[in-house]
Fold this sequence. Notes:
Layout (H helix, E strand, L loop, with lengths): L2 H15 L8 H14 L5 H10 L3 H11 L10 H18 L7 E4 L6 H12 L1 H4 L5 E6 L2 H9 L1 E3 H5 L4 H7 E4 L2 E4 L1 H4 L2 E5 L12 E5 L9 H13 L1 E8 L13 E3 L6 E4 H4 L7 H5 L3
Parallel strand pairs: 1-2, 1-7, 2-6, 7-8
Antiparallel strand pairs: 3-5, 4-5, 8-10, 9-10
Helix pairs in contact: 1-3, 1-4, 2-3, 2-4
Amino acid sequence: xxxxxxxxxxxxxxxxxxxxxxxxxxxxxxxxxxxxxxxxxxxxxxxxxxxxxxxxxxxxxxxxxxxxxxxxxxxxxxxxxxxxxxxxxxxxxxxxxxxxxxxxxxxxxxxxxxxxxxxxxxxxxxxxxxxxxxxxxxxxxxxxxxxxxxxxxxxxxxxxxxxxxxxxxxxxxxxxxxxxxxxxxxxxxxxxxxxxxxxxxxxxxxxxxxxxxxxxxxxxxxxxxxxxxxxxxxxxxxxxxxxxxxxxxxxxxxxxxxxxxxxxxxxxxxxxxxxxxxxxxxxxxxx
Length: 287
């Protein structure tokens, strides 16, 4: 691929989504843009990029940005966050929220829905103990296409085999031919909306818990810092942030501090620094 074309697309993708494309991603760029090129009646990804450079087609630009987003996910991906959510976060919420409190959970970059639905299944299993928290789960993603799949809740045999215990599959899914569709009682617990992590977060409201796992790794340092700062502004004072195993706020943002002994779990630094804060002690006491 010509350098001028790669530079143009990498700049476009960065400006529209914050995602960073390095030179070693040329093969990925070409493979993901080739189907769009064929759809447009063009011979190659190079021809597609040349066309976008010549005329400002916003719809085509959106398709290119969407094609470059990573949508790898599966049910109960990395069991540790779900264990921490059950063993530490939910007990804290129960002890520090009034009965009937609407516990708001944001799954950023929700992709095709496996993460929010995993949380729904876990909460449904624990409904007798934590049902008074009235969970409200919102899944967002930059890609309308993957969110349509999430809303449909329809998964292949391969997709449900990735991380989903058989007992939960039988309990919370209905088989349709070779596929499985999530039951309405679970699907109704989540709402989905298209959202770009570069946009204004205030429209989303405040959150008790945010899952932003395996997302920051695709951004550069300034964008990571900006995202974490904006998440922090929308967190409840004693709220919790989950990041991926390969991600951290250390050296990236002063807004959050890690919870001792709880991999991938963070709280607002302002709260963690307060000696009298009631949040950190119960959570890290078991560490």
